[in-house]
Design goal:
Length: about 450
């Protein structure tokens, strides 16, 4: 065999070996490309899941995992079979498996953060030639739920005024007025996780743990309880043909007055012409006889009296809860829990008005006042929706944060000489599914 023939044979062997290496490298590149594609698919899915879980959080912690799981199933459509998905609310990821973070998550234990982790052993194709049968893939995402639960909807002037008051809330405050002094605070204290102002701040000896953010661009008007306006109760006209569940005070169209003499009394769902006045010593239960678990809807119309809670009144609510729909007139608390008074009110637990305790339509601009409500024997749970009216807390000492929730959406809000007024965060205390706030935003943080 000549030298040229031997050299040609060696070249053929080298070409064959090179082709093997090239095919192996191409196979590895294809596998790696598929792994990256699959990981991107998984990352998009957990991002969507974390956001969905955070958006569902205001409705109650029980809704977080189902919302996140549904989002993952929708995104992947079975393309990640064998994947293990963990939804943590609050986050729990540390440097250990399954997360293996370089450092523990700083948001561990924060109830308004939702964490989603997905792990999967992805089978190989060409890499099996080299004894690699699967590659572990791991992705993680985390989103923060909006904690705002106090909204003032007025578009100009001062929406929030704090005067000689100490106010603390576990949730964020949003003021939508574009006025230069959209929020004023004079000799007071506001403790809130966040304060977002569309306009400016005027402050004199006022202390805040969260620095207000001013002149923020907002999609104004933004009303997280707007949907309630499509569920306004029917208001039966008042007149000579009173009947059924239409009630009037005596005499004539005045407020229905309950006092010690005509107590105890049960006020059921219906239209109350002239409003309701609970005088000193009144003992009243709001509920539907024979159906205590059904929600009670008290509609007040026909006069400017509205709903008035006087001093030393005893008020209870049946298990279905109650919603006060104030078509006309204000809602007023006048030292209701002083001495032997006891106030136990909680919002409807079912139906289109669930989670809402006080509801005034936009056309009712009568300002409501919680005056001298010292919380000695008082528990008020539920949302305030008064898009056209002002809500004032005066001489108010509400400290029952452990068991109450009070999301507020009003035109404007005043705190005057309010000692340690506390509006509890719906995000922590509202029972599952009872927060009346909707369209909450969520932010992807990791």
């Amino acid at each position: 065999m000549s030298y040229r023939q031997r050299e040609a044979g060696q070249s053929l062997i080298l070409v064959a070996l090179s082709l093997g290496v090239l095919i192996g490298a191409l196979g590895l590149a294809i596998d790696m490309g598929f792994y990256q594609f699959q990981k991107r698919q998984m990352q998009s899915a957990v991002d969507a899941a974390a956001l969905a879980g955070a958006q569902a959080f205001p409705a109650g912690a029980a809704y977080v995992t189902p919302a996140a799981t549904q989002a993952i199933n929708t995104m992947l459509l079975g393309s990640a079979s064998g994947a293990v998905v963990t939804v943590n609310n609050p986050p729990t990821c540390t440097t250990s498996a399954p997360c293996n973070l370089p450092a523990p998550d700083p948001n561990i234990g924060q109830p308004n953060f939702v964490e989603v982790v997905m792990t999967m052993n992805q089978g190989t194709a060409f890499s099996k030639i080299f004894g690699v049968n699967s590659v572990p893939l791991r992705v993680r995402a985390e989103a923060e739920a909006n904690q705002n639960c106090i909204y003032t909807l007025g578009q100009s002037g001062t929406d929030i005024a704090i005067g000689f008051a100490f106010v603390t809330t576990d949730c964020g405050v949003v003021d939508e007025s574009n006025g230069n002094s959209s929020m004023t605070c004079t000799i007071g204290f506001l403790n809130s996780p966040s304060i977002e102002l569309h306009g400016g701040l005027s402050s004199l000896l006022c202390f805040n743990l969260a620095k207000p953010r001013t002149h923020l661009p907002m999609q104004v008007p933004y009303d997280p309880m707007f949907y309630l306006q499509s569920s306004e109760p029917a208001v039966t006209p008042c007149g000579a043909s009173l009947g059924g569940n239409v009630w009037a005070g005596a005499p004539g169209p005045g407020a229905l007055t309950i006092n010690a003499a005509n107590s105890p009394a049960t006020l059921e769902s219906g239209v109350y012409c002239g409003g309701i006045a609970l005088a000193a010593g009144a003992n009243v239960t709001f509920g539907n006889p024979g159906s205590p678990s059904s929600p009670t809807t008290i509609v007040m119309t026909g006069a400017a009296n509205g709903l008035n809670f006087g001093p030393a009144t005893n008020v209870a609510t049946q298990t279905g809860g109650v919603t006060f729909y104030n078509n006309t007139g204000p809602i007023t608390f006048n030292f209701p829990s002083i001495t032997f008074g006891s106030i136990n009110l909680f919002a409807s637990t079912s139906g289109p008005l669930k989670g809402v305790l006080f509801f005034q339509p936009p056309t009712n601009t009568s300002g409501s006042t919680v005056f001298g409500s010292f919380n000695f024997n008082e528990h008020i749970n539920g949302g305030y929706y008064m898009p056209g009216a002002q809500l004032t807390y005066a001489f108010d000492f509400v400290t029952d944060t452990a068991n109450s929730y009070s999301p507020i959406v009003v035109n404007s809000l005043n705190f005057f000489v309010s000692g340690f007024t506390s509006v509890s965060a719906f995000t922590k205390y509202a029972p599952a599914g009872l927060s009346p706030l909707r369209s909450q935003n969520a932010v992807l943080v990791e």
